[in-house]
Amino acid sequence: MATTASGNNIQAPIFPGSGEFLMNISIGTPAVPMSAILDTGSDLIWTQCMPCTNARTVASTCIAMETSPPLKGSWHKTLLLFEDSGSGPVSIPNIGFGCGVNNQGTGFGQGSGLVGLGRGPLSLVSQLGLGKFSYCLTSISENKTSNVLFGALADLNYSTSGASHRTPLVQNPFQPSFYYVSLEGITIGETLLPMPKSTMKLKEDGSGGMIIDSGTTLTYLQEEAFRALKMEFKSQMKLRVSESSDTIGLDLCFDLPTEDLSEIAVPKLKLHFEGMDLELPPENYMISDPSMGVVCLAMAASSRMSILGNIQQQNLLVLHDLEKETVSFIPTQCDQL
Hints:
By secondary structure, the protein is mostly beta strands. It contains three helices and 25 strands. The longest helix is centred in the C-terminal third of the chain and has 14 residues, at about 225-235.
């Protein structure tokens, strides 16, 4: 029996997919279970609806929602059911969600839709009227679960002791739905990359800047910054640059002498945000593929905004405090949260 909640005291399990993280929800009455991608870079909650012209996989869920005449997309309000990992199922009435019948694109191998957690009015965060939420992403290569935490539960696991883990959120009037942060520099090993603080700063015309996106796999850096990072990595890694980078689809790969990444000397990577430094463990920026015999940098260049992707957010409690307009990155063993 599901209990009804306001959304201010909910936790829900999340688990890794194929480059994305998913949560199990149910929509409608009677409830139809589905897995949906957890996406801070999106506003909408949506799923595939009948007749599902381009359902991505056999495992994808198709919701039967009547629209007359049939529409390419439609908007509905219904009951949303969370598989709450604390006290059992929790239902929330009158949650708006979108229906798509002709869905195309990659990333939906396991998910039938999205749960948008962005700033926009149609996101789950906005519909629940939340002042804060947090999530903790387990290793994308392991089949372990963690939680997304809403409202009062969001910062229960946050400790204010020690070094600062908090940086201000930045508003972009041209892209108001995204969670922007100020990345001021990057250190590789002991070398601060030679670029001005303004390189990845949000511009007056709304271009540039960096957003936090749980729905994007890799981290993307502004082209000038990525060129500097790539050059410094090449100089500090004691491995031969692989010729297989184009085949794998990543920009910088090295020939792998061993299957164990821990045995490889990988230079430290530290991100300098406004008010805090975030040093990432190697598994948050290096991907090994023993079958191809390579280890690759899990970053790429962007001609537009920079994006902090989910690989870089593994085993961090990422706390969005929308009342204080801050985001915190707290190193956490997420499967034990």
